[in-house]
Every structure is written in structure tokens, then in C-alpha cells.
Design brief:
Helices cover about 20% and strands about 35% of the residues. It has about 350 residues and is α+β, with helices and mostly antiparallel strands. The strands form three sheets. Strands 1, 2, 3, 4, 5, 6, 7 and 8 form an eight-stranded antiparallel β-sheet that branches. Strands 13-14-15-17-16 form a five-stranded mixed beta barrel. A four-stranded mixed β-sheet has the order 9-10-12-11. It is globular. The longest helix is centred in the middle third of the chain and has 17 residues.
């Protein structure tokens, strides 16, 4: 699907393909008027494990993190520098793919409808069965589900590829999340084991730079990950058009510096979607040189921090403080960003005894 045919807002976890054969993941909802904010996920490589119509692909991002995105961007800077630009709104370089370079735009909901109508291999059949199960259990229409990753692009391998589902809309997400308890209880989908979750937490320590002493405090969003018919799956919420509030250019962001602090979550209404948003108060600064207002927004581009913290939780945050200015250059507020394109960061939940 070419860009001119896209009849909705660009959304997190859409994909674009360039004339060079590069496959980029669309990131978030804030995009320049003539390009998309992205990161490079797959590139052609004769030795790649993913394949479509005789073309093999290598995955550039194994586990999403600021460090891996930076590594992918470094590769682009060397071989395809035209896709790396300084974004004047966010104040740093990132992968911005111009519309003029795009030959295809992949819509997860369109690809899902194709799979639901006529699955072409065992993995697509399992995907269809999983969506039918989730839809029946939650009451969410099948049309509100999408598929991303290799299945969206048609480069998947039924022997090892996962099922990366999307669910569109806040209320639909709540319904699916509520239904997962019953599906786990009835053994229709299987949760990961305690050892698997612990192994995952240790990987986050290594990937995100979280101090090892906090490994037990790393939150696990149980309902978003599981196993269906021996295939791993994930579920990621995505905003409907009416839920997209970002307006590119209305605010300008500039980094102040790294910060580390503890705080209490005062509002968690923005905790489902990436970028994740938490409003925090009762801030106790441990590192950094910045003054925060009584209530400060913490924004995370790391999806593992979505939907896992709630109002009243005491959290420990490592991120980058940013000044948010209006178009005249006046500072409106400060905020904290976790896991941006250039900076690692993390959020962990402190036990009540740590207050």
C-alpha cells in the first residue's frame, strides 16, 4: 500500500518499506509533515533468516531498547545517511523516513483481515485461531485487532516466528486484558513460567542498564505475553484515531540532562499506549540538576513499562529530563523521558517498605 492510500493517522507499529528494500517500524504518533518517525527493523541480507519471494532479511533490532535502536541508526548513518536526520522538534538525530522514499506502507489491521479471511500457513492459522479466541472471550470485534512484525510484512517463518498482535483502542484493550484471566485459568492460553519470567527480568537488567539489585522489582505485564499452540505471542495496545492527541510542532523538546528519582504515581490514564505516560508527584531527586513541578509527567518509549504501574505505586525512575517549550521558545514545563531513541532509562516499582 503506497503512502497516498493511507486513510488514517500513522500509528505505532505500522511499517514502511523504502525503495532500498529497508523495512522500518513506525514509532509512536508524532511525525513530521513529510516523513515518519521510525527505526530500522529488517534489511535485505542473503544470510537472513526471514524471507519473502526469494529475498532474505536480517533483523536489526533483536530486543527493542535505546542501545539497539542506536546501533541500528549507526548502521543507517554509515550506509543510508539520508534516513538519519536531526529532528528540530525533539532536538536529536533519529531515523526519519521521507514519504518520497517509501514504496509501501503496511497497515496491521488490513493484513490481519487477510489472515482472518484466508490463512496461508500454520502460523497464520494459529494467529487466526488466537484472534477468534480473544474476540469471543472479550467481546472485541476481530476488526479491532492487527498484526505487526514479520507476519505483517509476510517475511515470517512458521517454524520460529512469534505472533505480535495489536489491539486498537483504550476500551477494547481493557476488555481484552480482563478476558485474559479467564483464558489463562481455562488453559486456553498458557502463561510463561516463573523461571521464564525471571530470565526475562534478568535480560531487562542487561538491556536497559537497571541495577541488578532491582531485578525483583521489575514489573511484568502478565496479560500481554503468553503461549498459544506452542507459539509465543504478545499483545500491544495502539491508539484509535480519536485517541491521538500529539500534534507535531506544537511543542519543542530539549534535553536538560540525566536524572534519577523516586516518586508516587498520581495518574495512570496514559499507561496503556507507547509512549507511556505517568503523572507523578512526591518527587525525591537522587541525581540530576533540575527543578520539577509538584506534578511531573514521566514518558516512556520502552513498551515494557506500559500498563504495569498504577496510581499510588511508588516508583524509582532513571531517565532524561527535558524542557518543553512553546513555539515562541517559552518553557512550559519539564518532563522526564525513559528509553528515548538516544537514551536508556528504566522504571521499577518499589515495595511498600521502601517508602
Amino acid at each position: 500500500m503506497v503512502v497516498s492510500e493511507v486513510a488514517r493517522h500513522p500509528k505505532d507499529k505500522d511499517f514502511v518499506e523504502t525503495q532500498d528494500g529497508l523495512l522500518f517500524t513506525v514509532v509512536g504518533y508524532l511525525h513530521p509533515p513529510d516523513a515518519y518517525t521510525t527505526y530500522l527493523k529488517y534489511r535485505p541480507d542473503p544470510e537472513g533468516k526471514w524471507e519473502r519471494q526469494g529475498v532474505h532479511y536480517r533483523r536489526m533490532i533483536q530486543v527493542y531498547s535505546a542501545a539497539e535502536v542506536q546501533s541500528s541508526s549507526n548502521w543507517l548513518r554509515e550506509y543510508y545517511p539520508e534516513y538519519i536526520s536531526l529532528d528540530r522538534i525533539r532536538g536529536f538525530e533519529l531515523a526519519l523516513v521521507p514519504w518520497k522514499s517509501i514504496i509501501a506502507y503496511y497497515l496491521p489491521e488490513v493484513r490481519m483481515s487477510e489472515i482472518m479471511r484466508d490463512p496461508q500457513d500454520p502460523l497464520e492459522s494459529r494467529t487466526r485461531a488466537l484472534v477468534k479466541l480473544l474476540s469471543e472471550a472479550s467481546g472485541v470485534p476481530e476488526s479491532r485487532f492487527g498484526i505487526t512484525g514479520s507476519l505483517l510484512l509476510g517475511i515470517h517463518n512458521p517454524m520460529f516466528s512469534d505472533i505480535d498482535l495489536l489491539i486498537y483502542g483504550r476500551e477494547n484493550t481493557h476488555q481484552v486484558r480482563d478476558a485474559m484471566d479467564g483464558l489463562f485459568g481455562e488453559n486456553k492460553v498458557k502463561p510463561f513460567s516463573h523461571d521464564e519470567i525471571l530470565s526475562w527480568k534478568h535480560r531487562q537488567v542487561k538491556t536497559l542498564g537497571i541495577p541488578a539489585k532491582y531485578v525483583e522489582h521489575i514489573a511484568w505485564s502478565y496479560w500481554q505475553r503468553g503461549r498459544f499452540s506452542n507459539t509465543d505471542f504478545s499483545i500491544s495496545p495502539v491508539r484509535l484515531d480519536a485517541e491521538i492527541m500529539e500534534d507535531y510542532g506544537s511543542e519543542i523538546f530539549s534535553a536538560i540532562g540525566p536524572v534519577e528519582f523516586t516518586a508516587t504515581i498520581e495518574e495512570d490514564e496514559g499507561n496503556l499506549f507507547v509512549p507511556v505516560r505517568y503523572l507523578v508527584g512526591d518527587i525525591s531527586l537522587e541525581e540530576g540538576d533540575v527543578e520539577f513541578p509538584a506534578l511531573t509527567e514521566v514518558i516512556s518509549y520502552e513498551g515494557i513499562f506500559a500498563g504495569v504501574f498504577h496510581k499510588g505505586d511508588r516508583i524509582h525512575v532513571r531517565g532524561t529530563a527535558e524542557a518543553v517549550r512553546d513555539t515562541d521558545g517559552n518553557i512550559m514545563r519539564n518532563q522526564v523521558v525513559v528509553g528515548s531513541m538516544t537514551t536508556q532509562g528504566w522504571i521499577i516499582r518499589l515495595p511498600p517498605s521502601s517508602d
